[in-house]
Design a protein that fits this description.
Elements (H helix, E strand, L loop, with lengths): L1 H21 L5 H20 L3 H24 L5 H25 L2 H21 L16 H17 L3 H32 L4
Helix pairs in contact: 1-3, 2-3, 2-4, 3-4, 3-6, 4-5, 5-7, 6-7
Length: 199
């Protein structure tokens, strides 16, 4: 939902930034993989309740996700493997970040957040094995950028109010939004399958 809006609004800025970074000679896949390192650092700071630092590194992790694709498009370096690697690293980074909350003592809430997040992703990926799909017009509630924005906002609030209830409620909100998104995608997938002539 927010992701689609932000992608449209920031497309030109990101392409310009992508061109600038391309001049350094750093390949897009290196930026992609750096998100794993940054997410590990984010997770570490979450476990230490250094929430401002955690917030900074979570934002950097998200910027890597935006920048690698912009670099690939700007430099005409987009590849099928690069697209696949980006998607896999996104999932890995997300799991690592929520692991920080689990290690801090919010295991159930972190489990729900990551489980529902994976459901949103799988809801689209699985139907692609049944019928041909496009990336257009999919329900966008709870997509990765939505969850990332909620995570950033949660860390902002947690930085101000380091209360147990704030941690729990923040993770439950993320889980709820992701669950709604997964249900939306299931309904949409059913329509696509029926439209293709299957039951």
């Amino acid at each position: 939902m927010l992701g689609q809006y932000l992608r449209k609004k920031t497309k030109r800025i990101l392409l310009s930034l992508g061109r600038s970074v391309n001049k350094t000679g750093i390949p897009p896949n290196a930026i992609t993989l750096s998100a794993i390192v940054l997410s590990i650092i984010s997770s570490f700071f979450i476990t230490k309740q250094e929430n401002v630092l955690a917030l900074m590194f979570v934002i950097l992790t998200g910027l890597c996700d935006l920048l690698d694709g912009a670099m690939a498009r700007a430099g005409k370096k987009a590849t099928k493997f690069g697209n696949y690697l980006d998607a896999m690293v996104d999932r890995i980074a997300e799991i690592i970040i929520y692991l920080g909350f689990a290690l801090l003592g919010y295991g159930v809430e972190a489990f729900l957040a990551i489980s529902t997040s994976m459901l949103v992703t799988y809801g689209k990926a699985r139907v692609a094995q049944v019928v041909q799909i496009s990336n257009e017009e999919w329900p966008a509630v709870g997509e990765r950028i939505d969850r990332f924005i909620l995570l950033i906002l949660s860390l902002v609030v947690i930085s101000i109010y380091q209360e147990e209830i704030v941690y729990r409620v923040s993770l439950i909100i993320i889980s709820t939004v992701a669950f709604i998104g997964s249900v939306q995608r299931m309904i949409y997938a059913k329509r696509l399958i029926e439209k293709a002539g299957f039951k």
